[in-house]
Amino acid sequence: MLRLAVQKSGRLSDKSIDLLHRCGIRFSHPKGRLRAVSDNFPVEILYLRDDDIPGYVEDGVADIGMVGENVVLEKGVQVETIRRLGFGRCRLAIALPKGDAYEGVTSLAGRHIATSYPRLLGDFLSKAGVEASIHEISGSVEIAPGIGLADGICDLVSTGSTLLSNGLAEVETVLKSEAVLVGSRSLSDEKKALLDRLCFRVDSVLKARGYHYVLLNAPIESVDRIAALLPGMRSPTVVPLAEEGWVSMHSVLDDDAFWTVVDQLKEAGAEGMLVVPIDKMVI
Ligand code: ATP
Ligand code: ZN
After folding, report:
1. Residues 203 and 237 in one domain
2. What is the pLDDT of residue 231?
3. Which ligand is the nearest neighbour of the Cα of 49?
4. CB–CB of 216/270 below 8 Å?
5. How far, in Å, are 8, 22, 83 from residue 27 at the CA level?
6. pLDDT (0 to 100) of residue 114
7. Residues in Cβ contact with 94 at an 8 Å cutoff, skipping those fewer than 6 apart
8. Closest residue CA from atom 24 of ligand 1
9. Which atom of ligand 1 is closest in space to residue 67's alpha carbon?
10. What are phi and psi of 33, to 5 degrees?
11. Do 70 and 193 fall within a single domain?
12. pLDDT digits over 158-211, tens only?
């Protein structure tokens, strides 16, 4: 049985659980419960605070965990990063009150910066050769300058709207982060085999995320031209329509590529185009 830690409630919870469900792993998530056992895959889910996940994985209390890379690096734990999961994207950024003069990282010298990420900020400043004082606080970092607690902050940002509404402007990016699957460095062979099975499923779901399935109708003489535009995994599927001289073509296409080729597809005679999401992809 593999023990997998996910965030109990917060920004990563729903997406972590959704990923597992898309991997075909069934389990319950009742409010207030701290663990659940899947009834169709040998995995036990532990619901924890995100800050505790890296340490529990390092200690082997959990075998693997889904957590923000920012938390893993801040904790400085010895764990294996197994997969980047493509959700929970954010950046750890330094921000100063709007209107403060800023001429590069040396402008931070001698300033007081509030953060929940003292290790990552400290590493960033020392690499830049800048001496500033780090004021560690555990939450509501963005209000620190406004109440006179610090000159600036170093905090997680995704859209930047929280900074904006607190009168702050981003000046440096310390780290770009996303959710990662981490694992203990000392898994038994049995657990490694289970992890391989899980990773196979995770990869199929993650791969499908970048692609769409395209279906279109075309006159039979356009098949070669359209196939060149929609190469797909091997080559497109071509099936006859009931109407003589027409076919339906099916293929897999990169997320962004459709808009690049749509005009050429139309020009080649394609019509009735459908672009649909793909749930899983095994190559
Ligand atoms: P917990 O109660 O589990 O300690 P938390 O309040 O520390 O939760 P959340 O705010 O739920 O944590 O964020 C969890 C993770 O989501 C972050 O560590 C980060 O990796 C990611 N994240 C993505 N976007 C943002 C954002 N704009 N602000 C904060 N975290 C973000
Ligand atoms: Zn937390």
Report:
1. no
2. 83
3. 1
4. yes
5. 14, 12, 22
6. 98
7. 108, 113, 121, 124, 152, 153, 154, 170, 171, 172, 174
8. 90
9. 20
10. -80, 145
11. yes
12. 999 999 999 999 999 999 999 999 999 999 999 999 999 999 999 999 999 889
12 lines ligand 1 (CB under 6 A): yes
Residue 167 sits in the same domain as residue 95: yes
Residues of the chain predicted below pLDDT 70: none
What is the pLDDT at residue 256? 80
pTM of the model: 0.90
Q: Are residue 185 and residue 59 in the same domain, yes or no? A: yes
For 56, the domain range is 2-86+179-207
Q: Are residues 143 and 260 in the same domain?
A: no
Nearest CA to ligand 1 atom 19: 68
Specify the CATH number for the domain of residue 146: 3.40.190.10
Does ligand 1 come within 6 angstroms of the Cβ of 7? yes
Cβ(70) – ligand 1 distance below 6 Å = yes
Query: Which ligand has the nearest atom to the CA of 139?
Result: 1
In order, the DSSP letters of 80-135 are EEEEE-S-S-EEEEEEEETT----SGGGGTT-EEEES-HHHHHHHHHHHT---EEE
* Ligand 1 within 6 A of CB of 156: yes
Do 10 and 81 belong together in one domain? Answer: yes
Does ligand 1 lie within 6 Å of residue 51's CB atom? yes
The domain tally of the chain equals 3
Beta carbon of 188 within 6 Å of any ligand 1 atom: no
Residue 239 belongs to some domain of the structure: yes
254: CATH: 3.30.70.120
Is 116 touching ligand 1 by the criterion CB < 6 Å? no
Would you say residue 283 lies in a domain?
no
Q: Do residue 115 and residue 235 come from a single domain?
A: no
Which atom number of ligand 1 is nearest to the Cα of residue 7?
3
- Is 282 a member of any domain? no
